[in-house]
Automatic annotation (TrEMBL):
Keyword Transferase in record: no
Transmembrane segments: none
Domain annotation Cytochrome c-552/DMSO reductase-like haem-binding: ranges: 48-347
Biased composition regions of type Basic and acidic residues, renumbered to the chain: 213-228
InterPro entries: Cyt-c552/DMSO_Rdtase_haem-bd
Region (Disordered): 203-244
Record has Transport as a keyword: yes
Biased composition annotated in UniProt, kind: Polar residues: 203-212
Protein name: OmpR like regulatory protein
MF terms in GO: heme binding; metal ion binding
Signal peptide: 1-29
Keywords assigned: Electron transport, Heme, Iron, Metal-binding, Signal, Transport
Amino acid sequence: MKGFLHKISTAGLSVVMASTMLLASSMFAAEYTLESAKGSPATLDANDAIWAKAKEVSVPLSETPYKPNNYKGITKTTAVLKSVHDDKNIYIKLQYDDPTMSTNREPWIKQADGTWKKMKDVDETKHENTYYEDKAAFFWNINTKGFEKKGCAIACHMAKDGMNNGISDTSPGRKYTRAAGETIDMWHWKSVRTGLSTGMTDDQYVNSNTDPKVSKDWGRSGDEKLGGGDKANVNADKTAPEFMSKNPDKTKTWILEEDKVPFVDTFKAGDMVPGIVVGKLSGSRGDIETNASWANGKWTLVMKRALVTTHPKSAEQDVQFSDLKKPYFFGVSVFDNSAINHMYHDGSIELLFK
């Protein structure tokens, strides 16, 4: 009898433990699920017929990390997501409403007295919200504990009374993971520096670094690159541009590396020269091809990346979609003409391959 009761007790305990684990799992489940359908787009055109096969998921973005004193952008929008994949690549389509196309990133404007002025209007934290660019970002969990529950917020650490992690800091917040060895893959699309100019998204990652001497951006770093990137277009004494484009175009607010020539001032008052020189990223940092367009108050992005990357540091810098039977968790945010202020969602989004 005693053995029988022991068996019942043990069985009951197993049921309770299983139920508890199931409950805990459901408590931490992502609120949104994006299903990636099998198929390949012929191009990165957002109107490719393949997108009709993909299910759409809408994620409200209504949270912001802080309220800049000079911010005039939107404070909420909705990320509309779709995904497809083939045997080699994953494709992500993102659409969201933004009434303004912001690409005028810190340009130079010639003044009436003949001098040049680099346009800036920073907020109380010394970050730009006026002369900047629209951006979007995806955070993909690699091995960071708690990401499934908290999403991007797991690596977002806000300053309090001018201090962050015991260090004096003017930035309203910093990105870093909580434990050594934990990393997050960050796909950072920048309309001027990577998107419209070179058809790319900047492939970055977040680790646990909190030493500004190691990295001025603390835990956020770019993947290893072989070439490309962006550089401020400013001369040695910071009074005028260093370069101009050999093919001037008033609609472009950037200068391509291959088009830059030394600056010669033949301009008239009110003329603009871009404040940034950009080159197409290569190496691990250039993994993500992107087609982007803005029309009728809406941004549309289509991203393409290999399911599995094979760079020397891919394991720590890139999410690896190596097992299409398991879920992957991510978060998404968008920036309206702002350096760091952005709109995001609580929790994470689950990606499932179908």
